[in-house]
Amino acid sequence: MSGPSRSDLFETLSPAERAKVDLSCAFALNSLAWILLKTKGADPKETEAAAEVGRVRQAIGRLKEVELRKARHARVDAEAAKRFVRSGLWVPDNKKRRNQVEKGGGERGGKKARKSQ
To answer: Does 99 fall in a domain?
Structure first.
């Protein structure tokens, strides 16, 4: 085994990925201990191995909860964001202003002329 060391691999991983690797290793070792006790004829449920397997399962559950929470908050509704930005930006309507100026005088003159007709 001349590959990179475990510490070198850990440097490239994110904290969530590191937790996954550690929990996988802990679960694998505890499962091997469970199998060893079973092959020796002992009841693993009555030893500390059962508590340790339960502890690792709880940690795996907590990690999954964190990942789900992170995934829920990471979503962005792109269409809604576009609507917010579009409605928040003020863009003058140049066509209306040009037409009103050509017809006779600015916004107020055009509006008064329409009301009196």
So the answer is: no
